[in-house]
Each structure stands twice: as C-alpha cells, then as structure tokens.
Design brief:
Two copies of one chain form a homodimer.
Chain A: H1 7-35, H2 42-61, H3 63-73, H4 79-97, H5 100-123, H6 126-147, H7 153-158, H8 167-190, H9 206-220, E1 229-231, E2 237-240, E3 243-248, H10 255-274, H11 289-304, H12 308-321, H13 330-338, H14 355-371, H15 379-391, H16 417-436, H17 440-445, H18 450-459, H19 469-477, H20 484-498
Parallel strand pairs in A: 1-3
Antiparallel strand pairs in A: 2-3
C-alpha cells in the first residue's frame, strides 16, 4: 500500500477477505461433498451451501461496500490497489444488479433440470429435458438483461466464466480453431497411418494406479504439504494457495485416462499453489478465471503429459507398475496417448485435437439459443448436422449427442468456450516458456520441472487477478490471446504422427 | 406450527436456519482441519473459521432478530415454538451483551496461551503459562460481567457449556460424587483383589484395530450411510443428523483404548443421528448441550462397552482379530477394562471411577480462580494437595499435574463439570432403560441394540433442545439430575470386582 492509501482501502480488504473466506469455506464443503461425505448427507450439505451463498451475496450487495468502491474509484491508488477495486467492483455490480429472487429461481430451475437431464439421458429422450432447457434459457436471458439490458445476452453470460476477454475476441479464436482443425482432422481421417492405439490394453488395478499417480505427482513437484490426492466421480481440483487438492478416478481398463486426468488437475492445483500467500483473501491472491485456469491444466496435460519427452521418462514407471503391458516403445506409448479418433462422439473422451470441434459446436448452439436465433426443439438436429459437418459422424442417439453434457442443466451457458481458450493459451505459454528456457524438452525428459514451475509462477500465478486476461497472456508471451500457436503446434504434431 | 403462529416465527426460523448452517459449515471445516487438511493449510483455514464465526456473530446480533424475539415472546405460541424462541434468545442475548472486541481479545489471548501452554508442558514450567492463564481469567471474568454483572462469574461461564442446569444443582452433584468416590477408591486401594490388568498386553497393528472398530460399529448399529470413521490425534465426533462422523486413534500397545474411545464417540454420533431430520436447522434439531451429549457417549462407553455382557459378545472378535492375546476369559477381559488405578495422574487415562475426582479437582480450582478466591500462582500446590487428598498421590511434575489439560489455555472455564454430569446422567438413563426394557443385558450379549437405540431416541434424541436439561432427564428417568444412580452403580460394580 502506498503512503496515500485511503482508510477505505483497508475497509475494502476486510470486507473482501470475509467474502473470500466464506466462498473458500463453501469450496471445502463442496470438495467434502464429492469426496468424503456419506451418502445421506446431501439435505444438510445443500442447506449449508445455500446459507454460505446467501451470506456471500448479502456481503457483496451491502450498500457500504458500494460506497467504499465509489470512494476508492475516485481516489489516488497504486496500480495493484486499482486492480483490486476493479475486480471487486465487477463482482459487486453483478450481485447488485441481479435480483435475489431471480438467482433463486435459476437455482431451483437448474435443480429440477438436473433431475430431468438425468432421466432424459437414461431414456435417450430429449423431450423430457427440452422444457427445462427452455426455462433455463429464458431465466438466464433475463439474468443477462438485469446486468446489461442493451448488450448481447450471450456476451454477458460468457463473462460469468471469462469476465475479461471480450466475446468478439473469443469468437475469433474459436473460428480460427474451427477453420484449422476441421481440415486437419479431415487429413488425418484420410491418412493411412496406423497408430499403436492398443499399447495400454489390459487390466490395471486401482491401487497400483494410485501409487503410480503419487509417484508422478512427486516428480512433477506437487507440494503434498499443501495438497491431497483423492478419488471423485468427476475429477476436479479446488482450494487455496495454502491447500490445493486434486481428485482423480481410476478406470481399471485405462491407466492413461487417470494419468492424464491427474496431470490435468495437477496443473490447476499448481496454479492455485503459485498464487501469492501474502495476497490470500484479496483478488491479487485469486486465480484469473476459467480460461487461464484451464490453460494451466492443459499445459501440463497436453504439452507435458502428452509429450514424447514425458513418456521417455514415465514409460519405464508405467511398465514397472504394470508389467502386463509388456515392453512397448516410447513411440508406441506416444502414439497411444495422442491418437486422433474422429469417430468419437463424446467430448470428455475426445482426443486433444477433435476436442475443439466438440467445443465449437456447443458454443455455436448455446450462443444461438441465448440470442434467440435457435429454438430448443431444433437442438438435436442442429447438433447432429454440425457433428457431421465438423467431424464426419452423426450420433445415433441424443444421449450420445446433445444430452451428453451436464453444463446446460446447471444453467451454465458461456462456459464451454473457456475450455478451448485454455488450450490455445496453453500452447502460447508453452511456446514462450520453450523460447525462454533452455532445453525445456530435456528438462521434462529428466523429470526436472522446477524451471517450468518458476516460469509459470513468474508469468502467470503470482499475479492473481492483477491483469486482465489478454494483458496477462500478452505480458507472458508477447502476443494477444490467439489460436495461432495451437494451430502451429497441432499441425506439426499431427503432421508428424500421421505422416501428413 | 399452529394456525395462529405469527409470520415473525417463519422469519425467525429463516434466520436461525442460516445461523445454524453457517455454524455447521464451520464444524465441517474444523473436522477437515483435524482429519484431512494438509499440514500447511492452517493460515487459510484459521481465516475461514474466523470469517464464519464473525458472520454467525453478526447474524445473531442483528437488531431485526432481537425485534422478532421481542415480538414472539409476547405472542401466543405452541410449546415447541416457545422452546425455539427461548433457545434462540439465550444465544442472542449472550452474543449481544459481549462486545466483539472482547470476544476477539479472548480469541487472540487463547491463541497465545495455547502456544505458551505447549511450551510450558514440554518444559514442565508452570511459570511460562501462568501469565497467560492470568490474562485469560481476567478476560473471561469481564466476559461474564458483560453477560450478567450481578451474578457469580463462574456460574455465568458454566452456562456456556451447560446453559440450563444451575451451577448449584451441578455443584451438589459433584459434591455427592466426591463424597462417595473418595472412600470407594480408598476401599479399593486397601482391597487385596488382584485384577487381570495384563489381559490385553501385546502389539496390535492399527489396520486390524480399524477393521475391528468397523465391525463393532456395525454391530452397535452405526448408520454408515450418515457417517464415517477416520483417525484424528484427539478423537471427537461432529456433524448433523444427516452426517455425524466419528474419529478415533490407534495405540498399537492398547486395543482397548481405541475400542472404548470409538464406542464413546459412537455414543455422541448416535445422539446427533437421533435428532429429528425435520427439525434440522432449528434448536429442536440440535443436541441439548454438553452434559446430555456426554451422557450419551458415556452410556455407550461405560454401561455398554465396559459391561460384562458386551465382552461376552465381543471378546471372541478381539481374539479372532488378535490371536496373540491368547485365550482370556470374559472375566479377565472385564477386569482389564474396569480395573481402578488410583496412582494414575492423567485425567484422559483415568478409569471410570477415579475420573470423577480428576474432574472435581479441576472444577474446584477453576471455580475459585474465576471467583478470585485462588491466585494463579497457587494452582500447582493446590492441585497437588487435592490429588493427594482425593486420590492419595502427588504429581512429581506440573506437566503431569496442573498443566496436563488443554481446556484452560482455550479459555474454557466451566467445561470440566459437564464430563461428570454426563456420567451421572448416563447412569440414570441406563437404569431407567434397564427398568423399561426387558432383558437389556441379554440384548447386549446378543448384539441387539435396537431397543436401547429406540429408547434413547424416544427419551432424549428426538427432543433436541425442546426441554431444558433437568426436565429432559426427569421425563426420561423420573428423577432430577443426581449422582445417586452412578453411586449405586459404582458401589455395586466395584464392590463385586474388588470383593469389598
């Protein structure tokens, strides 16, 4: 703080600290619910989470907080202080503008939609879900209208997940991606390469997978004194710079799934752990939203965990843990973890490349739904047509088509693009790190990850929310957020793999 | 709710629900801290817990809550509604009367006192702890003065832990206990019985102890779908009626320690699980304070877990789990878990009988400290004199004397008596259950605990805070809270064991 920092700034930090701590408490409750809670604990846990969410909301809409922000926006502050005020104002403004009863209606509607979505998916019956989807779209449009009545409602909703990169910018990235990936996948489909996709066929007991995961996390430099590894049905990472936990799951038929998923969650956790201790409880101690978070997980998953150098180091460990895999070559392992499967229909099972087409499709559909350019009834047909057009396959059921993801039943419209944005930023960051650090590939091969950790901490983690997304990326890499690095990387990688 | 229930009552329930849920969230954070949290998580966790505690306090002192209570105290309510209002008022009044800065000073002082206490205990140096104890006594006296300036400050502090049984009543129970137990221990010291205290000598791996605990908890009827068993350095139980968790610890030299401690915590958890689901979030869904809670843990630990019938059932399991114990008789097992050791200096290691003298001693000292009748400097000498007078032993060090317990360094004065109150109420309840239920002893021997569960749920658990402590006990047993049942039970039990 500067000498001239007004007293109001301390008041602001007190209030923000409380809000953040209540929110972090909710994060822990949610972790516990997914990892530790006994089966019948839900009714109490739901009410505890609602209470914390209501408390957080009340603290955020408190008039006094608004007055402090008014005063501080007119004050002479340091750049860091201005960043704190900017970030708190953004949160506060949204909270103030959306009426509580609308928030509650969204919450109630998504709770019902979730049940309907589960039934619809089990029965492969889109009609069961359609009215709920329609209601959620209607509610979220009204939600967006409260925040900014004159703006594109989808752009407003997108900001829930990526508040400081414009939708125009994001859309141009996604368009570039689509235009590059569709023909690349087409070329791959036409190639006569025969990749070793059966390298890791077999049965892999969960206990041994877990011990391999712990070994890999040791090597990557996970700080166990500030973390844990547990099992959850849907892997995630959560926590604070003092305590950032990873979850994973084990499929006994697929050791690579758990490995890459664990490395992915490690990337999230290591970002959280790289946030500065001393800024805990303020925006400077918090992660810069979803696309940057996803850039960290995907950098570790794709640029480290799917690299040939990584497999040179880790293949012997996998073979040692699972002698049943025989004696595959590094090339065979590398092919198995990087093979492209354009016939796959499911986003969460997609390879690194086709993944983006699954995202672009969802983005285009949800954008048009929210803008009113597409009716809910048309979703299955449009979904299938786009699958055909982008990937050359048509789902035979809606369960394997437009019903496969949970996001819309949560009322989350605008979330999907952040996955692809994360990937393209990961490619930019890895490129830049590779330029800055001598022999990054050799370091990965040697299991020496300190220089990469340090680089990421210096360029990304330690800043928290100091910079907005594009500025953060530009300072780290020299370039604006763009798909170019990913396209170059993918063209080279898959060109080599498939002999294109 | 009756037809005439005023709208203010719904408002009250909303507010109380939020307060309870925030408090339960803090309970989960605290469980996690002791069971799951990585080593370096403390700084964030402390701030999260402070934030929740501040939120809870702010909700409790909100003027609007006071107005609702004023209105409802004058309204025509059902008995249950009146009970709810009474309980909320008690909490609210304390919160309103004690200034926030005093609460924060107690919290800061006890945080420092805790560190000093650890040093003092390690170095066996009471002087290191004395100034902190003095400060905490001073602060807690002021605390009591804010609540009720004209009353005995110790009586006021006692109400933090046992708010609805008068100190006079409690004191007469403790006096009866002392007057009965001192001569009984004296008789035991003089008896020439030679109990089989070495029945469970040996080494007992933690893994096998844990699997035995799970087996025992199954048999006792622990509802795993609403619970968990984990390890913690200091065993405890916590949670809600939907999710009541047990912790324990394993000493590889002592399988009986973990067994009785687990059964004790099971007793706490089963009380929590017996609270009515439909009253969750209101005082009618919450446990009636510490002495009733302790009565449940001690009923299961002492009247079930230390009974001969229990060992008739469980000894074969113990022998199966640990063949190294050989082939002891039920009598030998029963003697081993019930032997009295008047030479033991440590409360938490005390047998069921001498335990109460450890409590009476602490009660008398803390009462006199708070009343200003005893100076901190005199504590070691008074402690040792009382040990000599009640138990016939003198600690050679303060570490094994007046420094052994953590309670005072937390600023908890008035807590100790609830342990003995719990024991005497347990004896009363078990007596009453034994009268009401045919063949309770046979049921325990057969591992049939349903009738006891049902009786306890009907008489105690389902009422939550509906009745005040003495009324609850009187309705369940026909008698006011009293040491008589315990004294009869102990006289008979130890008379038989020691041939008195």
């Amino acid at each position: 703080m500067s000498d001239t920092t007004p007293a109001a700034y301390d008041d602001l930090l007190d209030r923000v600290g409380r809000i953040t701590n209540v929110s972090n408490a909710a994060g822990l409750l949610s972790w516990d619910q997914q990892v530790m809670m006994p089966d019948e604990g839900t009714p109490a846990r739901s009410r505890q989470l609602s209470a914390l969410s209501a408390v957080e909301h009340d603290l955020l809409v408190d008039d006094e907080l608004g007055h402090l922000l008014d005063e501080l926006e007119a004050a002479d502050l340091t750049a860091d202080e201005r960043a704190v005020v900017r970030e708190v104002r953004r949160e506060q403004e949204r909270a103030v503008r959306v009426p509580t009863d609308l928030v509650e209606r969204v919450s109630a509607a998504s709770s019902e939609a979730l049940t309907a979505w589960r039934e619809a998916t089990d029965a492969d019956d889109f009609e069961t879900f359609a009215p709920h989807l329609r209601e959620l779209i209607d509610l979220k449009r009204r939600y967006a209208e409260h925040i900014a009545p004159d703006r594109d409602p989808y752009a407003v909703l997108f900001e829930e997940y990526e508040p400081c990169l414009s939708l125009e910018h994001a859309e141009s990235v996604l368009t570039t991606l689509r235009e590059a990936v569709v023909p690349l996948v087409d070329d791959i489909r036409g190639a006569d390469a025969n990749l070793a996709t059966d390298t890791f066929d077999g049965t892999f007991p969960s206990d041994q997978q877990e011990s391999l995961m712990r070994d890999v996390l040791d090597d990557l430099g996970y700080r166990w004194e500030r973390g844990r590894l547990d099992v959850a049905p849907h892997p995630f990472s959560t926590g604070t710079t003092y305590d950032a936990r990873i979850t994973t799951r084990y499929d006994e038929a697929d050791p690579v799934g758990a490995l890459l998923s664990t490395v992915h969650e490690f990337g999230h956790a290591t970002y959280t752990l790289g946030l500065p201790d001393e800024a805990y409880g303020t925006p400077l101690g918090e992660a810069r939203d979803l696309s940057i978070h996803e850039s960290q997980s995907r950098l570790w998953e794709n640029h480290v965990g799917r690299s040939r150098a990584f497999w040179e180091r880790f293949l012997p460990r996998v073979v040692e843990a699972f002698p049943g895999v025989g004696d595959p070559s590094v090339r065979e392992a590398y092919e198995a973890v990087n093979a492209v499967d354009p016939t796959n229909l499911i986003r969460v099972e997609a390879d690194e490349l086709t993944y983006h087409l699954h995202i672009v499709l969802r983005f285009e559909i949800e954008r048009d739904l929210i803008r009113g350019d597409l009716d809910v009834a048309e979703v299955p047909a449009v979904w299938n047509d786009k699958m055909d057009s982008y990937l050359g396959v048509r789902p035979e059921t809606d369960a394997k088509g437009c019903l496969q993801d949970i996001h819309w039943s949560h009322g989350n419209f605008g979330y999907f693009p952040t996955y692809s944005l994360g990937s393209v930023i990961a490619a930019q960051l890895f490129d830049a790190a590779d330029r800055d650090l001598d022999g990054l590939d050799d370091a990965i091969r040697a299991g020496e990850f300190t220089s990469l950790h340090d680089w990421l901490t210096d360029r990304i983690h330690r800043h928290g929310k100091r910079f907005e997304t594009n500025e953060l990326v530009a300072r780290a890499t020299g370039d604006d957020v763009s798909a170019d690095a990913f396209v170059d990387y993918a063209t080279e990688k898959y060109g080599t793999l498939y002999g294109l």
